[in-house]
Design brief:
By secondary structure, the chain is α+β, with helices and mostly antiparallel strands. It is built from eleven helices and eleven strands. Strand 9 and strand 10 form a beta hairpin.
């Protein structure tokens, strides 16, 4: 059984935080185990949290006023706590947390806000119906109306899809981890990070946005779901096949890009000369595909070029004398 090794200094910081909490009779809080409210983080400016090295944990409202619980690494600095109380205009209840947990949470918060601000620059993707009228625009804003906090999530998802199309990605992977959400693109068969990891608090909203676009059940989070949607991009329609799967940390999603119009245009001019075969291999391959009977198997991982190779082979053997039929297994 593998043993998980903590980074240097982590154990000592945890021990020091617990000792300080016990000495000054202040509650100890493990920020990795406690869910921090995203709205609460928005209540306090990020630069203030960095400057004073603290994070808000909870907000208690009473007839006498509001009391804000904060986590600090050192409860001995009473002057700092008094200054924070004046700046935040609230009574404070102090808890102690390890310094590295506070720093990690602040970094993720800053990254999340920066990413969400960057994607506000403009463009929109029209999500269109896959029913009888392909030009019908779905009113996603109306379907997902739930407050002002949904707008940046829509921009984040649209930005992710747009950049994937610009970079010619074949898949978009959204992975929910213990403390963060990671978005990756599969380009030429290899996964690449699309952006810096963002806070896990955004996971459910990102997945819900994708479910709305794919017409899936937003309330169902315990079983896998498959769907699809279509977007209009640079004058052409592009299909996306969507898979959502529950995991121990939340839900993951994979979006498969099916740019059929672009593929048809490329495949019409495709030949084996540009696939990348060596001279000896291409000579043998051309010999085999022209045989009147038998089978040629093309295998490989996702994005390795199986479909491109098959279309290139078909373009070489098609003629007016023979009839060619292709069969593809379609997922439900």
């Amino acid at each position: 059984m593998a043993t998980q090794i903590s980074p240097p200094g982590v154990s000592s910081q945890i021990a020091e935080a617990k000792a300080l909490a016990a000495r000054y009779r202040t509650p100890y809080v493990d920020l990795k185990e406690s869910a921090v409210d995203l709205e609460l983080l928005r209540l306090v400016p990020v630069d203030m949290m960095f400057r004073y090295n603290f994070v808000p944990v909870a907000l208690e409202k009473t007839p006498a006023g509001e009391t804000l619980e904060i986590a600090v690494a050192d409860p001995r600095n009473l002057q700092l706590i008094d200054e924070l109380s004046v700046l935040l205009r609230r009574r404070l209840r102090v808890k102690v947390a390890p310094l590295f947990q506070i720093t990690d949470l602040l970094k993720k918060t800053e990254q999340s806000q920066r990413v969400l601000e960057e994607v506000t620059e403009g463009f929109t993707l029209d999500v269109v119906s896959d029913q009888e009228n392909p030009d019908e625009t779905l009113s996603i804003d109306k379907i997902s109306a739930g407050g002002d906090d949904i707008a940046p999530v829509i921009k984040l998802v649209d930005s992710t899809i747009f950049n994937a199309l610009e970079r010619r990605a074949s898949d978009i992977h959204i992975e929910t981890r213990d403390q963060e959400v990671v978005i990756k693109y599969r380009i030429d068969g290899v996964l690449h990070y699309a952006m810096s990891p963002i806070a896990k608090d955004w996971s459910s909203m990102i997945i819900s946005r994708i479910k709305v676009m794919s017409e899936l059940d937003i309330s169902e989070r315990r079983v896998p779901q498959d769907g699809r949607f279509r977007v209009r991009y640079k004058g052409r329609l592009i299909d996306f096949r969507v898979s959502v799967m529950p995991t121990v940390h939340g839900e993951d999603s994979v979006l498969r890009v099916l740019d059929k119009e672009s593929m048809s245009e490329k495949f019409s001019k495709l030949s084996l000369d540009v696939v990348g075969f060596s001279e000896n291999d291409i000579r043998k391959f051309r010999l085999y595909i022209k045989e009147p009977y038998g089978m040629v198997l093309v295998t490989g991982p996702t994005g390795s070029g199986k479909t491109t190779t098959l279309y290139a082979a078909l373009s070489e053997i098609k003629n007016d004398e023979d009839k060619i039929i292709t069969i593809e297994k379609k997922r439900a």
